[in-house]
Amino acid sequence: MRTDFTATRALFDIPEGVIYLDGNSLGPLPRAVPARVAKAMTAEWGQMLITAWNRAGWMGLPERLGDRIGRLIGAEPGTVTLGDTLSIKVFQAVSAALAARPERRVILTDSGNFPTDLYIAQGLADLLAAGHELRIVAPEEVEAAIDESIAVTMLTEVDYRTGRKHDMKALTARAHVAGALAFWDLAHSAGALPVDLAGAGADFAAGCTYKYLNAGPGAPAFLYVAPRHAETARPALCGWLGHEAPFAFEPGYRPAPGTQRMRVGTPPVLQLAALEAALDVWEGVEMADVRAQSLMLADRFIAAVEAICPDLRLVTPRDPAQRGSQASFAHPQGYAIMQALIAEGVIGDFRAPDILRFGFTPLYLGADEVDRAAAILADILKTGRWDRPDFHARARVT
Predict the structure, then answer these.
(1) Is-above-0.90 flag for pTM?
(2) Which residues get modified to N6-(pyridoxal phosphate)lysine (predicted)?
(3) Helix (H, G, I), strand (E, B), or coil: what is residue 205?
């Protein structure tokens, strides 16, 4: 193992006494981010004003940072751009895939997919009003469901609830044999495990930067377009920065070359500045090392919880090759138990209806913390400290 995780841990600002097991929902603050954002605000926006678009290089941030993310997800240079939200990028990618397969009408997904992706696909089908169908099958039934009726497979590589991991390479190959295109949502993959979009032959992919990439709440999403589609992709949502000459202000749309045509609105400069500093954490980090260490931490936690918390049921695949960087357990009182854990400094999260979810990010998490988290969880269950009215009261964000 070449990556120095003691060194990477020092790059994060995590509150004293907190065991943070929720980087799969919102990554913690890298120490370098506040100064970089302050520079963007004061030295760039404050002193350069509108000239910063050129002088500070703001307009090129989506492509420059896209290439840095591309290194973490196995993307070819120039194939990743940034901006907008993951929901918008999913809409763009799926609409482009449908446009590339006009004779087909089925979007195939699975029941473990994140609801936003399902809503977007159904809304797109309704908007097109051309007989498109969102076909939802169980995760284990996806491969068998790929046939010649499918226009695009729309899959999230790692299930947000259970952590179950799809075989990207195998399912992409199966889609291509059937004449379909493959879109992958990397929300729980990018920065968590090795991804090889080019090697897997993915057609489109998108992901967020506020989870394992630690760019902060509301950070922009990224979008990947395979080189073979870059000059022909036609997203249903086109914006002025996806135009070949945005400052010509032409009334008609001409797509920009390559993946830049997938840009929509003005780049969120302050969030991109945060992302720029957050990506510095990844210098010298090998994804294979991250994967090996995260699986070790998750295995350690699973073994401890199963030994001392018999009332919890593991819902994450036991086989490390079949899961992402999280472990999820089910309990009828999962919400209250998680609130009790958070109150005692162990931060995970809850996913309806009954899932306690824990993420394992070795950039800032070690074995001692995993052991302490399991022990605190066991004690909360043993003493029943979770059964307080305030722990049962549902907050707006769970």
Answers:
(1) yes
(2) 211
(3) strand
